[in-house]
Amino acid sequence: MKKSLIALAALAAVTAASAQSSVTISGLVRAGFQKDISLTANNPSLIKATSATDAGKGAAVATGSGLSTHDININFGAVEDLGGGLKASFFQNLETDPQRGAALTRADSGLDLAGGFGTIAYRNTRNSDLIAGIGSSAVVLPDGLYHNTGIVTRSDIDTLAYTSPAIMPGLNLSATYVEGNNGQINIPTANKTTIVLGAAYVNGPLTARTSYKMKPSTATASSGLTPKGNFELSVVYDLGVAKIGFAHDAASASGASSAAASTTASGGSLTAAQAQTIANLQTKSANGFSLHVPVGDVSLGLGYYTRGDQTVTEFGARYDLSKRTYVSASTGKKDGLFNADGYQGSQYRVAMSHTF
């Protein structure tokens, strides 16, 4: 009897400990038919590289179209209740190339400690601009704002951030220390650190975010350009019948580029003037506008984004089959000069997506 009581007590202790933490597995699988206008088209066997040259732009065009598994992502997360109002959490994202036989790749990861004092969070991720967060979920294209557009760029970074508790209903402040590396100690000569100050206000139908990215501590002039701090703003308002978004991203460099002529990844070449125009995009501010219209299980979306000579226009429609499965059809167009990885032209995607 005594042994049974001890065993029951031990089981109760294990059960209580387990109740203090939870582990979740989630993910996304998406497949369909698409046309991709970058060299990284999801089905390389269907890429059709041509010798066609866009008038006056000087770069060959490569497109890919066909059936493809667009996205396969798996996310692991865990939350532990430390007691006293403290919680620790962890997440790890795994991504795989759409091609059969591709291996999983470690993507974003992070550790958080949250309590009445706010949240301290470490991230190994990619940098972002607020302008990329206003897009409609009805638009699902092969390349988004992050890829090959000249509107925004992204690179691997490590961050340590503090987010305050609400200092007034809906308002949180944050400060983020950013290192330009990828999960490991930087080589000193490549070390560039930045402080980002941010604020987020979420109250009813209004979501507003702002940030100021300070000048990198070791920033130096490059090709005539000097990096500088820049201000960002995004506002999304839900009218009920539609959700409207606007974003502004100020210039992140000053001066004028003295870039020389260059050869693009597609095999074409840029004149010195064209290379300068692309480099000088950093001295131009960007603006974005988005619209999301839900109609029952159907939602419609559009977006328009521009920085200097570069623009992205996109449209999409989505039909929710359930809370986790939906079908979508999207089309978009890129205009402006070519850069090393991006191309002008139209692309589209018809897909079915499932989240779990």
Which features would summarize this protein structure in a list?
two-stranded antiparallel ribbon; 356 residues; mainly beta; Porin; 2 helices
Major sheet, described briefly? 16 strands, antiparallel, barrel
Number of strands: 21
**Helical amount:** under 10%
Per CATH, the class reads Mainly Beta
Strand order of the largest sheet: 1-3-4-5-6-7-8-9-10-12-13-17-18-19-20-21
Order of helices and strands: HEEEEEEEEEEEEEEEEHEEEEE
Question: Which oligomeric state applies?
Answer: single chain
What name does CATH use for the topology? Answer: Porin
Number of helices: 2
User: What's the CATH H-level homologous superfamily?
Assistant: Porin
Our measurement of the CA-to-CA distance between the termini, rounded to an integer number of angstroms, reads: 45 Å
Structural class label: mainly beta
Quick check: average pLDDT? 82
Radius of gyration: 23 Å
How many separate domains?
Answer: 1
Unreliable parts: 1-19, 39-61
Q: Which architecture does the CATH hierarchy give at level 2?
A: Beta Barrel
The backbone outline, from C-alpha atoms, is globular
Beta strand % = over 45%
